[in-house]
Amino acid sequence: MNTNKQTWSVPGIGIANTVRFSWTEKEMEPWGRETFGRTILMGCLRIEVKEVLCLQGNPNEKAFDVTFHKEEKHDEVLKMAKEAEKTGPLCHYAVTSLAKNNFRVVTVTMYNPHVKDEEVRAFLGRYMDNVSSARYLRDSLGFWNGRRGFQALLRESPKSVDGYLHPPAMFSLGADRGTLYYARQPPFCRRCMAYGHILASCSAKKCRFCGSEEHEAKECDEPKACHGCGSKVHLWRDCPARHRSYASAAGGVRGMGGGKRGR
Question: Where does this protein have coiled-coil stretches (predicted)?
Fold first, then answer.
């Protein structure tokens, strides 16, 4: 079973909690909606109607797309389908996930509202791909509350706590501090600036600047790195990304940073 195959009919951000059942038999006509529902969903996979948000037919691709209410059910069905893919009625279908598990909606708060969108996007581009333009979040009266929303894709990172590279939940762009959060964000420690645990359970003495476990940040004498791109050749105020165009700075290119003031 190929769980990574995507087709042109799938949005770039995927379809959450959705599994596609594609007909693979060339010598047989595809089953109709009722036969598929009774035989595959209710029969083989023991799915109840109340667990399904939507069952859509996709005649152009000889497929049915099943969207579940819960992510747990989506994962369970994929597992069951893989175990039974070569036996019984499921052998007629290729089962793939249309969900992109690395898609995130990131909420960023910069305590200085004058920091430019392209600078924030350039910072996110160090860790994430396809960073969207900013959406300003407003309160019930219509005032901007200082938060900006971005859509982006996490990069794979086998060494991280969940297989994805995550931008730091607390960061600085020069003298300007910021925070960010999103759904399914791992626990973040404010002391060692690492994911996987919180401050209360942190036992490491680790410098957030150079990563050394021999000293803390206040004792660090290593050359400071640019907050935007991570380079030790220059500081944030001299980062080349601050001179780039909006499009190039925010395109999610690996290693790019933004620039404004300070380090």
Answer: none
- Structural domain range at position 59: 14-99
State how far the Cα of 261 lies from the Cα of 179, in Å rounded to an integer: 17
| Final residue before a domain boundary, out of 99, 134, 167 | 99
Q: Which amino acid is at 44?
A: C
Element (DSSP H or E) covering residue 171: strand 170-173
Do 95 and 219 lie in one domain? The reply is no
CB 185 within 8 A of CB 169: yes
Rounded-to-integer distance, Cα 236 and Cα 124, Å = 15
Percent of the chain with pLDDT over 90: 52
Record the pTM.
Answer: 0.54
Condensed to tens digits (0 to 9), the pLDDT of residues 201-239 reads: 787 766 666 766 666 666 777 777 776 676 777 776 778
Residue 29 belongs to a domain: yes
DSSP 3-state of 170: strand
